[in-house]
Amino acid sequence: MDGILPLWKPAGMTSHDCVWKIRKMLKTKKVGHTGTLDPDVTGVLPICLGRATKVAEYMTNDGKEYEGEVTLGFSTTTEDASGDVVERKPIERPFTRKEIEEVLHSLTGEILQTPPMYSAVKVNGKRLYEYARKGIHIERPTRKVTIYELRLLHNEQSFSGETVSFQFRVRCSKGTYIRTLAVMIGEKLGYPAHMKALTRTASGPFTQSDAIPFSVLAQHLEAGTLSDIIAPLEKGLSHLPQRQVSADTAAKLRNGAVLPTPEWWTDHQKQVVFYEGKSAIAIYQVHPRKSHVIKPVKVLQIDSLKR
């Protein structure tokens, strides 16, 4: 069973919970997810099965899209609705649509983020949430992320109340914390804020319309039509450069051969997926110490004699 199952993750389950449940349902151990979603977050969670687990890291690195809701007026320990209130500041004036859109525009592009204490980022060998649960606050690494698009999803021209909430859509790079983005939006508007709700609407090439809830997965298992909802592992590599090769070269790739760097390989191409027909054979990169040759990063198919 090789391929990618585009799961619709329900609220209340961790990404690891989803992997565990699918292992049990499909009676297979080779299962992996492609990017952690917090328990309260719903949405697209591609699950790699069998040989497709080899490409999980490439899907994790691909862009994501979310629809979220930020609430201005109070902040929380976890930066989302599940945490305890840290600071309150009642909204004293209406916000115009233009003000909010200008803030969203200012956060588009490359920005710096500090991960929340309640996150899975490791510092000194421990995850930040382990420190947070013990009440230990430590220095966290700031990192660059890219916001490709950040749009307001309302038609209102004015937003007012003791608290103010509005929905947004964001397309972003790997490593972006949408909870932290919600807090940053609030800071720029002059108020404490948190993320009220969040849904991942796309992960790499998989969108909300592709995603399957557990109930539908169970129906396909019972009907014996699981192959109808499993995408080929090649779909998870669609964002990488691709190159077709001959049968002779494909045989060498399956054996993990080191090959001369092709003339067409340019400096901006870090890794290339080699295909024979519609099948991905291997992922190669230029040798780090010998620029005249390329070496395998991942061999996705092996020679039939070695099976």
TrEMBL record:
Q: InterPro entries under this entry? A: PsdUridine_synth_cat_dom_sf (IPR020103), PsdUridine_synth_N (IPR002501), tRNA_psdUridine_synth_TruB (IPR014780), TruB_C (IPR032819)
- Annotated tRNA pseudouridylate synthase B C-terminal domain ranges read 179-237
One GO MF term, please?
Answer: tRNA pseudouridine(55) synthase activity
Q: What keywords were assigned to this record? A: Isomerase, tRNA processing
Which reaction does this chain catalyze? uridine(55) in tRNA = pseudouridine(55) in tRNA
**Purpose of the protein:** Responsible for synthesis of pseudouridine from uracil-55 in the psi GC loop of transfer RNAs.
Q: NCBIfam families, per this entry?
A: TruB
- What is the protein name given in its UniProt record? tRNA pseudouridine synthase B
The organism encoding this protein is: Bacillus chungangensis
Q: Which gene encodes it?
A: truB
